[in-house]
Amino acid sequence: MTDASATRRFWMLRSRQCWSTEEEHRLDVVFHPERWLLPKLARLHINLLAGYRGSGRGRELISTFLASVAAAGAASCYLAVRQANVNARRFYAKLGWHPVEVRGAEPETYLVHPTG
User: Fold this and answer.
1) Which has the closest alpha carbon to 62: 86, 95, 110?
2) Could you give all domains of the chain from N- to C-terminal order, each with its CATH number?
3) Is 64 exposed, middle or buried (0-12, 13-18, 19+ CB in 10 A)?
4) Theoretical Cys-Cys bridge with 10: which of 5, 38, 49, 80, CB 3.0 to 4.6 Å?
């Protein structure tokens, strides 16, 4: 399975799952992590305190994370960012992250990046 087809399959499976509330979604993530795993696809979640933004630490953390998941066999990585968070979307675009169309994902945008 190619990286692109694996990513497409992942999002097709995700789009079929429906939760009534954000709470149900978060509980599903916590108690059923196996539903969120797909071979060769990693997920990045990063939050930086305002005082650390613009210092290069976020870029360094992401670079280290991508290298570590590549070493573990992941071909690509994805993350979610709120559409309204223009600064974060601009930051990720500079680092080479690309949007993936996910039906019903609003108010978030999903981005992918190869690990290699």
Assistant:
1) 95
2) 3-114 (3.40.630.30)
3) exposed
4) 38
